[in-house]
Amino acid sequence: MSRQKSGVIYILPNIFTASGIFAGVISIVNSINGEFVTASWLIMLALIFDGLDGRVARLTNTCSRFGVEFDSLADLVAFGVAPSILLYMYAGHDYGRIGIVATALFVIFGAIRLARFNVMTSQVEPSVFIGVPIPTAAVFISILILLFEKYDFLHRYLYVLLGLSMLISFLMVSNIRYPSFKKLNFTKRYALRLFVLLLCLALGIFVYPIEGFALIFVVYILYGLIRAVVNMNKRSINRKE
Questions:
Q1: Dist CA 63 CA 214 (whole Å)
Q2: CATH number assigned to the domain comprising residue 57
Q3: Consecutive sets of 10 residues in the chain, 241 residues long: mean pLDDT of each?
Q4: Which of 8, 20, 113, 117 has its CA 20 to 30 A from that of 175?
Q5: Which is nearest to 13 in space by CA: 78, 65, 80, 76?
Q6: 129 φ, ψ to 5°?
Q7: Domain extent at residue 148
């Protein structure tokens, strides 16, 4: 009985990982069928599964090399291929080869981002990511498409969507540092402030879900860019002194 129980616990994280792949595949099918809103939300669902598999593995102490590799392949499908197909079917096909290049860049750079993450995991401090994580990039694309679908006047600016997708692709393979939030320890002094902030964010997202998520991801991406520029200016000033 104990062996059966341990076997179930071992495969539990992998079930969440497989669910993320399934959500990505269903998103691709919906993109091909022109159901762009559903396809976008399915990528968001894959993000939830991606967050659960690692946490379940750590809680049950069932982390394994197989799980790490399986998770990377799942991320490439759910956060690389699925959003790129969504992007191409929604906007890329209207711009010929430029649309193909924009969607291909997202998959290729996403794969590079995953490979680099696997290689550098033990060398990088756990509180930061080097480059935008591929799940963040995928959800960013999904949120933008949800915004374009909600506001019809944005349809005339589909080229902006392609431009932003190429920008986020390059940010994935950049050396810009982004906060991880995985191992942040908040003291009691800041617990109440954090609770109030999270409560306000939750209420804002409840009222304006698409705009709320878009704002969060835009702020996150801009934070890394702005911090990188500030650090470059500081280094240049120090060299002059």
A1: 32
A2: 1.20.120.1760
A3: 56 87 96 95 93 77 77 92 95 91 94 86 67 92 94 89 94 88 60 78 84 88 87 74 62
A4: 20
A5: 65
A6: -110, 145
A7: 2-185
